[in-house]
């Protein structure tokens, strides 16, 4: 049971995560528009779009394939970050309403763990590509935070295991009553 004094920080975190989720959704939609805009310019070789992309740095490299690869990688990274924030928001909403060890929270934590694993994997691929391919900009992440992401993923896994045992204990307690 969550005390009344603990509900305020959970509520603040919930509303803050809703704000972040809104920002991610807007960024995801506008990023999709930019990717489609750049892709149309490359496929149909429209000079005005390609010159705009070179002036603004969209695409990053003189070769258009690496621009598409970079945009796809960053877009998938943004998709998994949005999924991560969405399930964090769902989990915080359940926790602030005193629903702790229930099956839906276990599923939320599982989705948080999966999306964070994909974020770490895509971040590692981006860091590898950044070191292999000579980009003209630094849109891809470097490998500096990759070790911390792996440790954080293990922490999410431990939280998942704890919640899994908590759900089993809650089910056993409900059967006894």
Helices and strands in order, then pairings?
Layout: H1 4-43, H2 47-56, H3 64-96, H4 103-132, H5 146-176
Protein name: DUF2975 domain-containing protein
Keywords: Membrane, Transmembrane, Transmembrane helix
Structure classification? mainly alpha
Query: What overall form do the CA principal axes indicate?
Result: elongated
Q: Tell me the β content.
A: under 5%
Number of domains: 1
Unreliable stretches covering 5 or more consecutive residues: none
Count of DSSP helices? 5
Order of helices and strands: HHHHH
Helix content: over 70%
Q: Sheet with the most strands?
A: none
Instruction: Look at the structure and give the mean pLDDT.
Output: 81
Terminal residue distance: 17 Å
Overall number of strands: 0
Rg computed from alpha carbons, rounded to a whole number of angstroms: 21 Å
Describe the structure.
It is a single chain. With about 180 residues, this protein is an all-alpha fold. The protein has one domain (about 5-170). The protein is about 80% helix and about 0% strand. It is built from five helices and no strands. It has helices at about 5-45, 45-55, 65-95, 105-130, 145-175. Helix 1 crosses helix 2 (about 45-55). The longest helix is centred in the N-terminal third of the chain and has 40 residues, at about 5-45. The mean pLDDT is about 80. This is DUF2975 domain-containing protein. Keywords: Membrane, Transmembrane, Transmembrane helix.
